[in-house]
Amino acid sequence: MDLSRAQRMMLGIAIGDALGREYESIPGKKIHIDAVPEEYAKGTGVYTDDTQMSIAVAETMLSGESFEAEILAGRFVEAYRRDPREGYSVETLSMLENSRTGEEFIAWIGVEEKTKRKSDGSAMRAVPIGLFPDSGDVITNAIINSEISHTHTYAVSASVGIALASHYFYYNLGLRSCVIEYILQHMEQIWAKICGYLRAVDALEEFDPETILGEYADFGPPYTDAKPVLGTVLYILKMNASDPLQAIKKTLSLGGDTDTTLCIILGIIMADHPVAVLPEKLLTNLENGDYGRDYILELGKKLEQKYPAE
Predict the structure, then answer these.
(1) Which domain holds residue 236?
(2) Which of 86-90, 193-197, 242-246 has the lowest mean pLDDT?
């Protein structure tokens, strides 16, 4: 199947999400992955909130409208109401179910409450933002993406870091092993503390749970804290970008919020690789309803036309 980089990216998001959800919230110490699963446990791969919100981001980018908070939030509401999905946090689900417009979605949780939200809920939907051609726009729009619902420093910086990693891979800006260096160059002036953590991650030769996951070392990357999620994602991108199957094995074996981590990692990595590197049934058995595989491929085709990689 001859697919564009953007199509492979969007497929990677959905396949990673659908496969990762089968391991979600299992502590890493209880998971043993000998090989990448050849198919989904229940036959059909069903994606969750991660992909749905990424689709909404992509639709906003293709709409011709400005990438503004109320417009993007309105797309989140629209996507959920036309096709309700599992996986949303209690707070975000409440925002979606009690809103009809983007303005209502943004206003549902107060400013003070948003500052406490440090989860990976905004980072999980940030991969398509990397397709903006200018890195300054990537940063600005990743901040907008996060501050709709999460304004804690960890959440905002994770949204920016993921979007920049996606940008780096999509536009082939350098060696994959230098991805963290690239992100540090663009983030250090604003997010110095997080960048200190990322420097420690970048210095590792092997995955060190204590350094990357800290208090979550036994569980895995948690959805409740975007900082170790960002560190995990960037380490695996740096070390395993050339081998999607190894990246999948490593991501699943860590446990925790596996649908989000694998959604992000596979979305970014697959821009570099033909889908044939993945087990065939992960593609053919991905759900294909109104907003399933074919819809995702069409979105990817339109993204490539608007944001050509070359």
Answers:
(1) 5-306
(2) 86-90
